[in-house]
Each structure stands twice: as structure tokens, then as C-alpha cells.
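Re: that backbone. C-alpha cells:
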């Protein structure tokens, strides 16, 4: 009989932890409405360019905005991952929540020694990954970068 109560208590603890995580995410989204989650990113160099790859599964290309800072030392990516409306209506109970939804923003520092050719920067979005190629060279000014799907 004692084992039953231990299992019951363990299950209740797990459910409380899950509820706490859901509430933490909810209140975090209220306190920071500009962005709720940050996508994962890889930054690496080739001989010709600095490349930054973001994991953005489920984000529509038309919601992605990419910006290169004026000093070419930071890359800013903003967007929104939205829930499927028809899928959301059918849900009655969550058992696990790990996929973040809503607005996001990620600022990535670029290597300090790489001089970027701002006029040749490209961004492509395919299979849930955004790849930004920043050819090496020079130039200090803010550049808007269009994203093609």
C-alpha cells in the first residue's frame, strides 16, 4: 500500500512541475511581449563568408525579419511562430508543452575580425532553417536583408 502512495505523490509532483512550467511561460510572455522564445543558432566561418543558421521550424517566411547592425558585429532575427488555428480549436488538454509559439528575437554576435561585404549578404529559408551568408569584406551601415523561401 505504501508503494501506491509513493507513486501517487510522484505523479502529483510531476503534474505540479508541468503546471509551473506552463505558468512560467505564460507570465514570461506577459512581462516580455516583444519576444517569447529564442531560436537555436549556429555561427561558423568559411574562407569566403560568415554563415549563421537558425532553426525556425514552423515559422512562415513572410514573418521573418533579418537585420545587420550598423557596425556589422551583430545579426538580429525577428519573427513569429503561430499555432495552426484548426489544430488549436481541437485541443482539450495538454500533456506536454515543449514547442514555443509567439514572437521571437535573437541577436547573434558575429566574429569581430570578419569584415562583412554588406551589399552581398543573402538569406535563404528552407526546410525550417534560415541560412544567412555574410560574405567577408567591409562597410559600416544598417542593412535590411530580404528572406526568400
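Recovered sequence:
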Amino acid at each position: 500500500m505504501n508503494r501506491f502512495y509513493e507513486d501517487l505523490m510522484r505523479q502529483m509532483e510531476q503534474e505540479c512541475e508541468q503546471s509551473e512550467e506552463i505558468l512560467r511561460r505564460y507570465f514570461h510572455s506577459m512581462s516580455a511581449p516583444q519576444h517569447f522564445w529564442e531560436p537555436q543558432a549556429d555561427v561558423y566561418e568559411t574562407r569566403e563568408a560568415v554563415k549563421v543558421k537558425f532553426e525556425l521550424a514552423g515559422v512562415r517566411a513572410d514573418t521573418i525579419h533579418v537585420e545587420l547592425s550598423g557596425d556589422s558585429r551583430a545579426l538580429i532575427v525577428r519573427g513569429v511562430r503561430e499555432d495552426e488555428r484548426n489544430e488549436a480549436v481541437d485541443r482539450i488538454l495538454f500533456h506536454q508543452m515543449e514547442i514555443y509559439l509567439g514572437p521571437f528575437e535573437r541577436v547573434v554576435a558575429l566574429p569581430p575580425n570578419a569584415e562583412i561585404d554588406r551589399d552581398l549578404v543573402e538569406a535563404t529559408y528552407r526546410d525550417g532553417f534560415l541560412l544567412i551568408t555574410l560574405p567577408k569584406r567591409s562597410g559600416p551601415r544598417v542593412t535590411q536583408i530580404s528572406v526568400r523561401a
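The first strand starts at residue 41 and ends at 45. The longest helix spans residues 2-31.
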